[in-house]
Amino acid sequence: VLPDYYPVALFKDGVAVRNYQQPVADIDVTDFVKKQPDDVTRWTRNAKGYSLQWPDDDEPETIEASAERPKIFPAGHKLNDYWKRLSGGGNTAMGGDVSVAVSNGYRFFSDGRFSTDSAVSSSAPGVFAGSTGDDGGTYTLNGSMLVLSYGSGKVKRMSIYYGGELNDPVLWLGGDSFTN
Asked: pTM of the entire structure?
């Protein structure tokens, strides 16, 4: 199980943004404030690093200056692995009878192709489970931007960063964390 870390973009003018899907260069802060007001705040520098007070949090958050920062893949890097994310919820921990698990995956190939898959599982009255897969196409990696061009003609631009070591990273795709 991977804790769900999220990148925070700190802009030079003192604005901070979290829970963004798009590349940082595509963030329109004015539009972001309208659509996701709880995910925009101001940051200040303090002795430990950066202090932020999100609108929906009771306590200020400090991002330590020594904290690992999300990294951008080097120019020319090709992804070549399967990346998965598991999320879910439910009320079984409180004596209920509902639990849901959702799995999402991206398989990237060094020749520039990708495929996706997902599955949903539920234990509840009126159980529903499903999966999809083999939706894919080609990808382009450029700095902090990943462009997925699906075989259907759909194009999706999303942010991409990694943490850890280049040969064994955690991957953030569109703001969500994935492991391999």
From this structure: 0.72
